[in-house]
Protein backbone atom coordinates (compact mmCIF):
# COMPACT_ATOMS: atom_id res chain seq x y z
CA UNK A 1 0.00 0.00 0.00
CA UNK A 2 1.65 3.18 -1.18
CA UNK A 3 0.44 6.40 0.32
CA UNK A 4 1.62 9.93 0.70
CA UNK A 5 3.50 10.43 3.96
CA UNK A 6 2.64 14.09 4.35
CA UNK A 7 0.29 16.21 2.30
CA UNK A 8 2.75 19.14 2.07
CA UNK A 9 5.78 16.95 1.41
CA UNK A 10 7.59 17.96 -1.80
CA UNK A 11 9.22 14.53 -2.18
CA UNK A 12 7.66 12.47 -5.01
CA UNK A 13 5.49 9.67 -3.61
CA UNK A 14 7.75 6.85 -4.85
CA UNK A 15 10.82 8.47 -3.22
CA UNK A 16 9.31 9.04 0.22
CA UNK A 17 11.09 6.83 2.76
CA UNK A 18 7.87 5.42 4.24
CA UNK A 19 6.65 4.38 0.79
CA UNK A 20 10.06 2.88 -0.03
CA UNK A 21 9.78 0.87 3.18
CA UNK A 22 6.24 -0.32 2.34
CA UNK A 23 7.36 -1.30 -1.17
CA UNK A 24 10.37 -3.20 0.14
CA UNK A 25 8.30 -4.97 2.79
CA UNK A 26 5.81 -6.11 0.12
CA UNK A 27 8.35 -7.27 -2.48
CA UNK A 28 8.68 -11.05 -2.88
CA UNK A 29 12.34 -11.39 -1.86
CA UNK A 30 12.50 -8.84 0.93
CA UNK A 31 9.32 -9.94 2.68
CA UNK A 32 10.99 -13.28 3.44
CA UNK A 33 13.01 -11.49 6.12
CA UNK A 34 9.80 -10.68 7.96
CA UNK A 35 8.61 -14.30 8.14
CA UNK A 36 8.68 -16.32 11.35
CA UNK A 37 11.97 -18.06 12.10
CA UNK A 38 11.01 -21.46 10.69
CA UNK A 39 9.79 -20.03 7.37
CA UNK A 40 12.86 -17.79 7.15
CA UNK A 41 15.23 -20.74 7.67
CA UNK A 42 13.23 -22.78 5.14
CA UNK A 43 13.68 -20.01 2.56
CA UNK A 44 17.42 -19.86 3.22
CA UNK A 45 17.61 -23.65 2.91
CA UNK A 46 15.78 -23.51 -0.44
CA UNK A 47 18.25 -20.93 -1.75
CA UNK A 48 21.12 -23.11 -0.54
CA UNK A 49 19.58 -26.20 -2.12
CA UNK A 50 19.06 -24.46 -5.46
CA UNK A 51 22.64 -23.23 -5.36
CA UNK A 52 23.71 -26.88 -5.34
CA UNK A 53 22.62 -27.02 -9.00
CA UNK A 54 25.73 -24.99 -9.81
CA UNK A 55 28.00 -25.98 -6.93
CA UNK A 56 27.40 -29.73 -7.18
CA UNK A 57 28.81 -30.26 -10.69
CA UNK A 58 31.79 -28.03 -9.93
CA UNK A 59 32.51 -29.96 -6.73
CA UNK A 60 32.08 -33.28 -8.58
CA UNK A 61 34.60 -32.19 -11.21
CA UNK A 62 37.12 -31.37 -8.50
CA UNK A 63 36.39 -34.25 -6.11
CA UNK A 64 34.70 -37.27 -7.68
CA UNK A 65 32.02 -38.41 -5.20
CA UNK A 66 32.91 -42.09 -5.61
CA UNK A 67 36.50 -41.41 -4.42
CA UNK A 68 36.29 -38.34 -2.18
CA UNK A 69 32.75 -38.23 -0.83
CA UNK A 70 33.50 -36.07 2.23
CA UNK A 71 35.49 -33.54 0.21
CA UNK A 72 32.79 -33.47 -2.47
CA UNK A 73 30.08 -32.75 0.14
CA UNK A 74 32.13 -30.09 1.94
CA UNK A 75 33.21 -28.39 -1.30
CA UNK A 76 29.67 -28.46 -2.70
CA UNK A 77 28.20 -27.13 0.53
CA UNK A 78 30.71 -24.28 0.63
CA UNK A 79 30.07 -23.49 -3.03
CA UNK A 80 26.30 -23.52 -2.51
CA UNK A 81 26.79 -21.11 0.39
CA UNK A 82 27.99 -18.50 -2.09
CA UNK A 83 24.44 -18.24 -3.47
CA UNK A 84 23.09 -17.77 0.04
CA UNK A 85 25.70 -15.10 0.84
CA UNK A 86 24.89 -13.20 -2.35
CA UNK A 87 21.17 -13.31 -1.59
CA UNK A 88 21.67 -12.24 2.01
CA UNK A 89 23.96 -9.41 0.92
CA UNK A 90 21.24 -8.11 -1.41
CA UNK A 91 18.68 -8.31 1.38
CA UNK A 92 20.97 -6.58 3.86
CA UNK A 93 21.85 -3.74 1.49
CA UNK A 94 18.19 -3.14 0.59
CA UNK A 95 17.02 -3.02 4.20
CA UNK A 96 20.04 -0.94 5.24
CA UNK A 97 19.33 1.64 2.53
CA UNK A 98 15.70 2.02 3.62
CA UNK A 99 16.77 2.20 7.26
CA UNK A 100 19.15 5.04 6.46
CA UNK A 101 16.44 6.92 4.51
CA UNK A 102 13.95 6.55 7.36
CA UNK A 103 16.41 7.41 10.12
CA UNK A 104 17.85 10.50 8.41
CA UNK A 105 16.58 13.95 9.37
CA UNK A 106 16.69 14.98 5.70
CA UNK A 107 15.46 13.27 2.56
CA UNK A 108 17.34 13.68 -0.70
CA UNK A 109 15.10 13.33 -3.74
CA UNK A 110 15.15 13.94 -7.47
CA UNK A 111 12.37 15.94 -9.08
CA UNK A 112 12.89 14.91 -12.69
CA UNK A 113 16.43 13.55 -12.98
CA UNK A 114 19.85 13.20 -11.38
CA UNK A 115 20.76 16.82 -12.16
CA UNK A 116 18.06 18.51 -10.07
CA UNK A 117 18.26 16.84 -6.67
CA UNK A 118 16.69 18.53 -3.67
CA UNK A 119 16.74 17.98 0.08
CA UNK A 120 13.69 18.04 2.34
CA UNK A 121 13.90 18.41 6.11
CA UNK A 122 11.50 16.06 7.89
CA UNK A 123 9.16 17.65 10.44
CA UNK A 124 9.60 16.29 14.00
CA UNK A 125 6.44 14.13 13.94
CA UNK A 126 7.48 12.45 10.66
CA UNK A 127 11.03 11.93 11.96
CA UNK A 128 9.68 10.35 15.15
CA UNK A 129 7.36 8.03 13.20
CA UNK A 130 10.16 7.00 10.83
CA UNK A 131 12.58 6.32 13.66
CA UNK A 132 10.00 4.19 15.45
CA UNK A 133 9.64 2.12 12.27
CA UNK A 134 13.42 1.72 12.18
CA UNK A 135 13.59 0.70 15.83
CA UNK A 136 10.70 -1.76 15.90
CA UNK A 137 10.50 -3.08 12.33
CA UNK A 138 13.80 -2.73 10.49
CA UNK A 139 16.38 -3.16 13.25
CA UNK A 140 15.19 -6.73 14.08
CA UNK A 141 15.38 -7.64 10.38
CA UNK A 142 18.95 -6.36 10.13
CA UNK A 143 19.87 -8.21 13.32
CA UNK A 144 18.39 -11.42 11.89
CA UNK A 145 20.44 -10.99 8.72
CA UNK A 146 23.62 -10.31 10.73
CA UNK A 147 22.98 -13.42 12.81
CA UNK A 148 22.49 -15.41 9.62
CA UNK A 149 25.83 -14.13 8.28
CA UNK A 150 27.51 -15.05 11.56
CA UNK A 151 25.96 -18.53 11.46
CA UNK A 152 27.22 -19.06 7.92
CA UNK A 153 30.69 -17.95 8.97
CA UNK A 154 30.55 -20.42 11.88
CA UNK A 155 29.50 -23.22 9.54
CA UNK A 156 32.37 -22.32 7.22
CA UNK A 157 34.84 -22.59 10.12
CA UNK A 158 33.36 -25.96 11.13
CA UNK A 159 33.55 -27.13 7.52
CA UNK A 160 37.19 -26.06 7.32
CA UNK A 161 38.02 -28.00 10.48
CA UNK A 162 36.22 -31.10 9.18
CA UNK A 163 38.02 -30.71 5.83
CA UNK A 164 41.40 -30.91 7.55
CA UNK A 165 40.33 -33.97 9.52
CA UNK A 166 39.75 -35.93 6.30
Account of the protein in words:
The protein has about 170 residues and is mainly alpha-helical. The chain has one domain (about 15-165). The chain has helices spanning about 15-25, 35-60, 70-105, 125-165; strands spanning about 105-110, 115-120. The relative contact order is 0.14.
Number of helices: 4
Strand content bin: 5-15%
**What is the element string, with H for helices and E for strands?**
HHHEEH
| Percent of residues in helices | 55-70%
Question: What is the oligomer described by this structure?
Answer: single chain
Short description:
By secondary structure, the protein is mainly alpha-helical. The chain has helices spanning about 15-25, 35-60, 70-105, 125-165; strands at about 105-110, 115-120. It has one domain (about 15-165).
Itemize the secondary structure elements and their pairings:
Layout: H1 17-26, H2 37-62, H3 69-103, E1 106-110, E2 117-121, H4 124-165
Antiparallel strand pairs: 1-2
Helix pairs in contact: 1-3, 2-3, 3-4
Protein name: CGLD27 family protein
InterPro entries: CGLD27-like
Keywords: Membrane, Transmembrane, Transmembrane helix
